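Protocol step 4 of 5: obtain the predicted structure for the target chain.
Materials: sequence only (see below). No template structures provided, no constraints applied. The aim of this step is simply to have a reference model before the mutagenesis design in step 5. Sequence pasted as it appears in the construct record:
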Amino acid sequence: MKIEEIKSAIENLSYQDFQRIKSWIDEIYWQKWDKEIEEHSMKGSLDFLIEEALKEKRKNELREL
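Step 4 output (structure tokens):
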């Protein structure tokens, strides 16, 4: 099945079915995102963020989120 066929099928879904598929796609997206973040973290690719936060903490310049 080609992407254009998939897009067409999605456009023709009922609102309820569209919501169901959207929820399913959202879940897959976040699972992939979590996996990517975990992989980057294991490789040390995100260590600079920890260092930056620690540096700001030492300077007492952290801001509330």
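Step 4 remarks: DSSP finds three helices and no strands in the chain. Helices lie at 3-11, 15-43, 47-58.
Proceed to step 5.
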